Amino acid sequence: MPFALATDHLDVPGFAGCTVADLLAFGVPQPDVLAALKARLKRDIDDQAESLRLKLITPGSGQAMEYQEAYSQAQAVLTATGTVKPADYPMLAATIGVDFDPDTGKPATDVLGVARSVKAAYEAYLEAGAAIRGVRLGAKVEIEAASDVDLALAVFSAIAWPSFG
Fold first, then answer.
1. Residue pLDDT, tens place only, 84-134
2. Residues in Cβ contact with 70 at an 8 Å cutoff, skipping those fewer than 6 apart
3. Which one, of 161, 120, 149, lies nearest residue 40 by Cα?
4. Which domain of life is it from (predicted)?
5. Would you say 47 and 161 are in contact if contact means Cβ atoms under 8 Å apart?
6. What DSSP line would sit under 24-52, residue for residue?
7. Distance between CA atoms of 90 and 118, rounded to whole angstroms?
8. Could you tell me if 28 and 53 are in contact, meaning their C-beta atoms sit under 8 angstroms apart?
9. Which of 2, 102, 130, 146 is positioned for an S-S bond with 120, CB 3.0–4.6 A?
10. How are beta strands 106-107 and 100-101 bridged, if at all?
């Protein structure tokens, strides 16, 4: 997935809004430019990773808590012995008839079906999230190890983000 390379507005004191080329032309020492560029590229990598994650999930810390609670309830339902009551699993009960049960391919008719749906969504996101995390952290390590501006830019330009749907 292509992302724009943002090398403007590097954080170099006294040179706000300058590009790498401008900074070097003004005589800013290459190590200072490289340090600012690395910081910027690593922030851009985090932003790109978040952009990819948001294609798969809804943003917000409250939403994350909802996902976490739904998954916790799904695990409890899927490991329960005996009858489960919808009232005991309110996050799951809320989407009976809305979530699709992966076993039937139809709207879930009970909390067990919703639990299977939540588990399937969690597993799909876990795989995607791990792929994003691996690329994100690997690229940041490579950028930090770059010995010059051109190498840091080359690493950034070569990032191969996973694609989803």
1. 999 999 999 999 999 999 999 999 999 999 999 999 999 999 999 999 999
2. 91, 92, 118
3. 149
4. Bacteria
5. no
6. HHTT--HHHHHHHHHHHHHHHHHHHHHHH
7. 13
8. no
9. 102
10. antiparallel
Task: Please measure the distance between the N-terminal and C-terminal CA atoms of the chain and give it in whole angstroms.
Answer: 12
- Residue spans per domain, the chain: 61-127
Reduced 3-state DSSP string for 106-118: EECCCHHHHHHHH
pLDDT tens for each residue of 41-61: 999 999 999 999 888 888 888
Please name which of 100, 120, 124, 115 lies closest in space to residue 70, comparing C-alpha atoms. Answer: 115
> What is the DSSP secondary-structure string of 77-138?
HHH--S---GGG-HHHHTTTTTSEETTTTEE-SSHHHHHHHHHHHHHHHHHHHHHHHHHHHH
* Cα separation, 107 vs 79, whole angstroms: 21
- Euclidean distance between CA atoms 12 and 33, whole angstroms: 7
Instruction: Give the type of residue at 92.
Output: L
Q: Which two tokens stand for residue 29?
A: 């020492």
